[in-house]
Specification:
The protein is an alpha+beta fold and 220 residues long. The protein has eight helices and six strands; from the N terminus they run ααβαααβββαβαβα. The chain has a single domain, classed as NADH Oxidase (3-Layer(aba) Sandwich), CATH 3.40.109. The chain starts with 15 loop residues before the first helix and ends with a helix. The relative contact order is 0.21.
Length: 220
């Protein structure tokens, strides 16, 4: 059994005023984040995407197995194939898979099976959840991979928003077509598809409200 190795924690202490300012500033920044479905084809430097993915890679994970893979797609032909496959699944979902209650929930968002943003956005980041690893000829499952990848995606969205980039969390179901189009191995399961870019100049978003703090938090 390998013995643990520890290093000193590098965490400078902040004063109360600085803590409060950072907390308020970050909340105001993230409170402006919105899901965007209308994109500009304007180019985004790859360096920004790389930095955002690197930030996502700092997320905590079960047993530090870091069970994520971020496939960044900018090739127009690959984006076209992904759009066609996603829209095929979405047509099935909207016409027969989704319940009336589900469709009623989606109605205020104005969504449907048409996903032009999958081709217009300069990048698609497809996040895969690695379900197992192989070492010394033995296969081992990754631990708490669902939770770990979910945390990493949250950091990814925050990092991209902090750069002034727009995002959308798209989860066409089933998503096996992403494995096939992108040639990923069986132990990499699609988790979410995220278009990334600048919003279109005339972009609009649904007029929705977020739940107030007193509704989502309870102190005991």
């Amino acid at each position: 059994m390998q013995q643990p190795k520890f290093i000193p924690l590098n965490a400078p202490e902040l004063g109360p005023e600085e803590q409060a300012k950072r907390a308020s500033d970050f909340f105001e920044l993230m409170n402006r984040r919105r899901t965007v479905r209308e994109y500009s084809p304007r180019e985004v430097p790859l360096e920004l995407i790389e930095k955002a993915v690197a930030t996502a890679g700092t997320a905590p994970s079960g047993a530090n197995m870091q069970p994520w893979r971020f496939v960044v797609v900018r090739d127009a032909e690959v984006k076209r194939k992904i759009r066609e496959a996603a829209e095929k699944e979405e047509r099935e979902s909207y016409s027969s898979r989704m319940s009336e209650k589900w469709l009623r929930r989606l109605a205020p968002l104005g969504t449907d099976e048409h996903k032009p943003f999958l081709e217009i956005a300069p990048y698609l980041i497809i996040v895969f959840r690695i379900t197992s690893v192989e070492e010394n000829g033995e296969t081992e499952p990754t631990y708490y991979s669902q939770e770990s990848v979910g945390i990493a995606v949250g950091l990814l969205l925050a990092a991209l928003h902090n750069m002034g980039l727009a995002t959308l969390t798209h989860t066409p179901s089933p998503m096996k077509f992403l494995q096939e189009i992108l040639g990923r191995p069986r132990n990499e399961v699609p988790f979410v598809l995220i278009p990334v870019g600048y919003p279109a100049e005339d972009a609009r978003v649904p007029d929705i409200k977020r739940k107030p703090l007193e509704e989502i938090m309870q102190v005991i």
